[in-house]
Amino acid sequence: MRHRNTGRYLGRNSSHRDSMLKNMIISLIRYEIIHTTLQKAKELRKILEPLITISKINSISNRRNIYSKIRNNEIIHKLFNDIGPRFLKKNGGYLSILKSGYRKGDNAYMAYIKFTNTKKNI
Q: Which GO terms describe its cellular component?
């Protein structure tokens, strides 16, 4: 039975799914907006928003905690020095998902995911 198992499979096995979501986290922090399928964007939001909450307090233990999940010093530096302080007065809702229609070819529903207070346009 599948009781209390949360998350989407996204048509991949667990190791592929974990590495794909980790790469998407890195891309979103680096570029502050990415274009992906709606289901991947929703899954990414569930993973990244708690990391942003942790990054609002810049301590060595928080850095190590996030490093265990991301493993990229450049991204961790940007997360703690740029993105975390940007959301100090905000409690959640750091990411917004903007639907952008269907993809030509396989008709998958596409969306943009971005930080709510980013200066970059679509």
A: cytosolic large ribosomal subunit
DSSP 10-36: TTS-HHHHHHHHHHHHHHHHHHSEEEE
Q: Which domain holds residue 25?
A: 14-115
A 10 A CB-CB count for 75 gives 19
Residue 90 CA to residue 55 CA, distance in Å, equals 13
pTM: 0.92
**CATH code, domain with 78:** 3.90.1030.10
Find the range with the poorest average confidence among 1-5, 35-39, 51-55: 1-5
DSSP state of 118: -
Question: Residue 33: which of 109, 114, 122 has the closest Cα?
Answer: 114
